[in-house]
From TrEMBL:
The keyword Nucleotide-binding applies. This is Bifunctional glutamine synthetase adenylyltransferase/adenylyl-removing enzyme. HAMAP family: GlnE. Residues 1-482 are annotated as: Adenylyl removase. The gene is glnE. Involved in the regulation of glutamine synthetase GlnA, a key enzyme in the process to assimilate ammonia. When cellular nitrogen levels are high, the C-terminal adenylyl transferase (AT) inactivates GlnA by covalent transfer of an adenylyl group from ATP to specific tyrosine residue of GlnA, thus reducing its activity. Conversely, when nitrogen levels are low, the N-terminal adenylyl removase (AR) activates GlnA by removing the adenylyl group by phosphorolysis, increasing its activity. Its cofactor is Mg(2+).
Length: 988
């Protein structure tokens, strides 16, 4: 090493060079870089991705070279290309710097006119080392050094542009060369493995190694698992041992070799014959396995056998989109990919995050699988090549293909730089506050200040831009060609995307009626003027969101109907265009529910509440009590009862749409949904009763007060979407009017209320059921308070007492309603408790209900109301406990099933774990019952079998995914456990 000089001419300061290490000046002096001759070297050092790291590595290398440093020093002064390669590597890769320090003479590989060796040259070099007679340990180290030397040369050429104005290596060149190195390494490992297993005269097996994944597509990362599949002429012990030894040696010397993509995965045989592979893929393989085979390539080993493997399996790949399970399996795979990344890491994940590499690869591969069956030009393995073919074939706009390719290569460049640093497999960007790491990454990725931002700012802006572009094009990639195929082709659109091709794509994306879907698209995009233009902009993204719902066909039809219905509302499409949250939520609702779209057609203003406000979703800004007062006030402005009811219906419709939308979007817990629905019903009853009384008030004033008593789930404040309103009407004479006069007038009022509310309309029905009154449908519709008292004192049956447990005043004269409740308290909460005979009668009636009330053909295991562990089971159990204990536990004087269960737990009337089972079953059955109405659009209690409807019910019930099978398994498990508690209580 040259002796340092003490005089420092006009050299740049360490600060200007970007050196911040306290020992930087001393390190420069040790290298002798302190004269005018070194100014150019110093500026080159300053351009390294991390100048301090590069300088430290140079000092270490100089120490290792000793007298040999002078040769390198002179070469650096003269050879700009060497300078760029060496300083680029030292500033970007700690691992390769360590390799150079350990093997200092390897710097010569970066000097002079350096080019990348061909695949044949690499194979020859690795094979020569593998065939040497060295012992196993030295052989491994020799191959390790050769592998690192080849990576060093590639990285030097790849990183040189960060320091000097050297040519930039194209991404396909880097990925292909890394795959060539991997092939050479696998070939060497196969030689070593064959020697190890067959060294004693055992014939070498005929075996081929099929490269998969990025290696198979020749777009490998610097650090990656190499996925392989083994095929042998004879899948015997020798072949299996050779394959196992290859994996062991290659994983120890080069990179992890993963054979998990083989048939049956890690549980399957490591080696199979070609016939066995073919048989498996013909009979058992899942869609994702064919998608993996898109990138299969015969890499090393027996070339003829490898070719036979590819020739036999590739035809199956290109027909896999015709499989019956293609759509659900692709959707399931996509969900798995998304679920692999914790929500907090998605913005940093280059591979699996939103707008990341997987978005590009998934979209490209799906398009290949759909259209490659009829277009051989798409039958390529590389993502970049596939994008070019999709653009050339008209399946994707040429500009979009070019832009997506650029984004993909940018993200892969960042991935490569992150991996090069320590030669570790990673796809994770540094955290936002790790500015030095991000600044290093920006410089390593050839980024320079642009006048507005420093390199770090450029990186952040570029990441934001590229991620957004990938997300946007990911949607457009599927759907824009569909729109173009039903309208006038765009300037750069090739008509190769025929209607048939569009139908295939729609089918692959989950649309069961692709011809109808194309008809809807044609109608939507055919709108004249600005409306059609906005639809062209919106539909690619809307269609993607619809394809993620359980029923995209119904969702698209509902969207078309909504657009037709709201054609005169200019705000509608503008809101969808400008408010992404509104559009996405609306598509989720339309693709899941038949109940809500019908409401939105007549209450479109609710769509505006899908937006987020300052305090959260606007759907939650409405208080049910405020809405109830508004409904009653709106109806009260009309003298005619029919018009009053119409006004009430309008607000009810709006409120039902709001509640159901918030429910479907996971914003409201089921308890709040039930309370809100009850509040709507109570307000409608109050409005209807008041309007009819106003219209039927005689000149001398009303002859009676009327109160409406809510029964069943209305009285319990736990109504569902499909619930009727069970009520009792009670009256009381006014001003000494005769009971007969008061009752007759009240009956007329109650009858008119029921008929007005029951008038058919386009809204969900308003059925009022008064059959729980004394003597049922044969009894008087309205009784006086004294008549009720006399009847219950003398004639009340156990089931009527049980029904009164849920009686609560809901409308009309509240004082009269309160006195009614006080009267029936003596009936439903008798001071001595329920008699043994009454309990026996309740058991008998319950047994009869279980045996006779279930509809013919219904499955008792999945009927949410009357089935095993369903709502009736839980509610009857709670009511039996109330009858037994309410006389001594005042807290049980409660009409709510859930609140009563809380009391049962607090007072330890049942073990806490049993109460938890009952509560879980009630909530599960209520969610399921509500979801059935939301999905089907009409009241029903029977869960469907496996299929699209069950998937939609699962999602609507808040299961967290549209996996109907998992949802149903959970329902059966929860209700089965609850039924055991029900039996225990009834048998006690």
């Amino acid at each position: 090493m040259p002796k340092p000089v003490t005089q420092r001419p006009t050299l740049p300061s360490v600060g200007r060079l970007g050196l911040v290490d306290a020992h930087a000046r001393a390190d420069l002096d040790r290298l002798g870089w302190n004269s005018d001759d070194h100014v150019e070297l110093l500026w080159s050092l300053s351009r390294a991705p991390d100048a301090d790291t590069a300088l430290k590595a140079l000092v270490r290398l100089a120490d290792e070279l000793g007298d040999g440093w002078d040769e390198l020093h002179r070469a650096l002064l003269k050879d700009k290309a060497l300078r760029g390669r060496l300083l680029g590597v030292f500033g970007a890769s700690l691992a390769l710097a360590d390799h150079l320090v350990a093997h200092p003479q390897s710097w010569h590989l970066l000097a002079g006119n350096v080019g990348l060796p061909s695949a044949e040259e690499l194979r020859r070099d690795f094979t020569a080392v593998a065939q040497s007679a060295a012992d196993a340990t030295s052989l491994k180290f020799s191959l390790q050094q050769l592998n690192r030397d080849r990576l060093l040369v590639l990285a030097g050429l790849d990183l040189a542009p960060t320091v000097e104005n050297e040519p930039v290596l194209a991404f396909p060149t880097v990925g292909a060369h890394l795959a060539d190195i991997a092939d050479a390494a696998l070939a060497a490992a196969l030689i070593v493995a064959t020697k190890t297993v067959c060294g004693d005269g055992v014939p070498a097996p005929r075996i081929a190694v099929i490269a998969m994944g990025k290696c198979g597509a020749r777009e490998l990362n610097y650090v990656s698992d190499v996925d392989v599949i083994f095929v042998a002429e004879n899948a015997d012990t020798v072949s299996t041992r050779v394959a196992g030894e290859l994996i062991r040696f290659a994983s120890d010397a080069f990179f992890e070799v993963d054979a998990a993509l083989r048939p049956e995965g890690k549980q399957g045989a490591l080696v199979r014959t070609l016939e066995s592979h073919v048989a498996y893929y013909e009979r058992w393989a899942k869609t994702w396995e064919f998608q993996a085979l898109l990138k299969a390539r015969a890499a090393v080993g027996d070339a003829e056998l490898g070719k036979q493997y590819i020739d036999a399996l590739m035809p199956m790949v290109w027909t896999s989109s015709e499989r019956e399970d293609f759509v659900p399996e692709v959707q399931a795979m996509r969900r798995r990919v998304e679920e692999l990344v914790p929500a907090g890491d998605r913005a940093r994940e280059l591979k699996l995050g939103t707008g990341g590499l997987r978005d590009v690869e998934f979209a490209v591969q799906l398009l290949q699988l759909v259209h490659g069956r009829t277009d051989p030009s798409l039958q390529v393995a590389s993502t970049v090549d596939a994008l070019a073919a999709l653009g050339a074939g008209g399946y994707v706009g040429r500009d979009d293909a070019a832009n997506l390719t650029a984004s993909y290569e940018f993200l892969r460049l960042l991935e490569h730089r992150l991996q090069l640093q320590r030669l570790k497999r990673t796809h994770m960007l540094p955290k936002a506050d790790e500015e030095e790491q991000l600044r290093w990454l920006a410089r390593a990725a050839h980024m320079r200040p642009d006048g507005q931002h420093d390199a770090l700012g450029v990186l952040r802006e570029e990441l934001k831009r590229q991620s957004h572009r990938v997300s946007r094009l990911h949607a457009k990639l599927f759907y824009q060609p569909l729109l173009e195929s039903v309208g006038s082709p765009a300037a750069d659109f090739d008509p190769a995307m025929s209607p048939k091709a569009a139908e295939r794509l729609l089918a692959a994306l989950g649309y069961e009626g692709p011809q109808s879907a194309l008809t809807h698209l044609a109608a939507l995009t055919a709108a004249s003027g600005r409306r059609g233009t906005v639809q062209q902009v919106l539909l690619p993204t809307l269609l993607e969101w619809l394809s993620e719902t359980p029923d995209p066909d119904a969702g698209l039809l509902a969207y078309r109907k909504l657009c037709d219905e709201l054609d005169d509302l200019r705000w509608f499409l503008a809101t969808l265009r400008d408010e992404g949250a509104v559009a996405k939520r609306l598509m989720q609702v339309l693709g899941t529910s038949a109940y809500v779209p019908a409401l939105l057609m007549r209450a479109p203003e609710v769509i505006q509440q899908y937006a987020d406000g300052p305090q959260g979703p606007k759907l939650l800004e409405v208080e049910p009590e405020v809405m109830a007062r508004a409904l009653v006030a709106s109806a009260g402005r009309h003298a005619d009862p029919a018009r009053a009811i119409a006004a009430a219906r309008t607000l009810r419709r709006r409120e039902l749409a709001r509640i159901a939308s918030a429910d479907l979007l996971g914003m409201l817990p089921v308890e709040d949904v039930c309370r809100a629905l009850t509040s709507v019903w109570v307000a409608v009853l109050e409005a209807a009763l008041a309007s009819v009384i106003r219209a039927n008030t005689p000149e001398g004033g009303v002859p009676a007060r009327i109160a409406v008593i809510g029964m069943g789930r209305l009285g319990g404040g736990e109504l569902g979407y499909g619930s009727d309103a069970d009520v009792l009407f009670v009256c009381e004479p006014v001003d000494d009017a005769p009971d007969s006069t008061a009752t007759k007038w009240a009956v007329g009022v109650a009858d008119q209320v029921i008929k007005l509310l029951g008038t058919p309309s386009g809204d969900p029905p308003l059925e009022v059921d008064a059959s729980l009154r004394p003597e049922g449908r044969s009894g008087s519709l309205v009784r006086t308070l004294d008549s009720y008292a006399a009847y219950y004192a003398k004639w009340a049956q156990p089931w009527e007492v049980q029904a009164l447990l849920r009686a609560h005043r809901v409308a009309g004269d509240l004082d009269l309603g309160e006195r009614f409740l006080l009267m029936v308290d003596d009936v439903r909460y008798p001071s001595g408790g329920v008699s043994a005979q009454a309990v026996q009668e309740i058991r008998r009636v319950k047994a009869r209900v279980d045996a006779e009330r279930l509809p013919r053909g219904a499955d008792p295991n999945t009927h949410t109301k009357l089935g095993r562990g369903g709502l009736a089971d839980i509610e009857w159990t709670v009511q039996l406990l109330q009858l037994r204990y309410a006389h001594s536990v005042p807290e049980l004087h409660n009409t709510s099933t859930l609140q009563s269960l809380n009391v049962v737990a607090d007072r330890e009337l049942l073990p806490a774990d049993e109460v938890a089972l009952l509560r879980d079953a009630w909530l599960t059955a209520t969610r399921a019952r509500n979801a059935l109405v939301l999905v089907k659009g009409k009241p029903t209690d029977q869960l469907p079998g496996p299929g699209r409807t069950l998937n939609a019910v699962a999602l609507a019930a808040g299961w967290g995914s549209d996996d109907g099978g998992e949802f149903l398994d959970n329902y059966l498990r929860v209700t089965r456990r609850a039924k055991a508690v029900v039996r225990k209580v009834f048998e006690a």
